[in-house]
Amino acid sequence: MQCNLYAVETKSPMTLYDELSVTPAGRDTVLLNKATEISSFLLPLKESGTRDTLLLHFSNLSGQDAVDTLFVDHIPQPHFESLDCPSSVFHTITGVRATSHSLGNMPLTIDSVALVRSIVNYDDVENIRIYLRSTVRQ
Q1: Which of 44, 89, 113, 135 has the most CB atoms around it within 10 Å of its CB?
Q2: Measured in whole angstroms, how far is the alpha carbon of residue 18 from the centre of its chain?
Q3: Which residues have C-beta within 8 Å of that of residue 81, sequence separation ≥ 6?
Q4: Number of C-beta neighbours around residue 40 at 10 A
Q5: How would you class 128 by CB atoms within 10 Å of its CB: exposed for 0-12, middle for 13-18, buried for 19 or more?
């Protein structure tokens, strides 16, 4: 699943200069580790189950950090190319939503999310837009 970052004020693509890590809730797995200077990122979806709860950990050079949560509801669908290839799983995203932390904790938070393309497959296209709100101009 491809997630792209946008500034909520301008609705235009943005580059995140703070650090971002992403982990699935309830697991000690890291899906994205301390990424900086990014405008998009790819995240896997669970092959079994219909909801991913992803924790987005933001931190900055001032030592501030905060966590927002991204909920992605989806329907997994097995996909077979041929008998010679292993199967893969495509997904249809049925809904996305997010929770945000207070800008008092850290001056960057998720404002809202939008579903752009519901089909998650081999195509390298935007699936989710994450609109960020900031009190600091980058």
Answers
A1: 113
A2: 15
A3: 88
A4: 16
A5: buried
List, for residues 57-105, the tens digit of each pLDDT value: 999 999 999 999 999 999 999 888 777 877 889 999 999 999 999 998 8
Query: 């890291």: which residue's tokens?
Result: 30
Nearest-angstrom CA–CA distance, 7 and 12: 6
What count of other Cβ atoms lies within 10 Å of the Cβ of residue 132?
22
Of 29, 10, 32, the C-alpha closest to 21 is 32
Global pTM exceeds 0.90 = yes
**Length, in residues, of the chain:** 138
CA distance 74 to 132: 23
CA angle at 92 for the pair 111 and 33, rounded to the nearest 5°: 50
- Identify whether the C-beta of residue 80 lies closer than 8 Å to the C-beta of residue 36: no
Alpha-carbon distance values, 127 to 48, 93, 118 (Å): 19, 9, 6
Q: How far apart are CA 22 and CA 32, in angstroms?
A: 5
User: In the predicted model, what is the mean pLDDT of the chain?
Assistant: 94
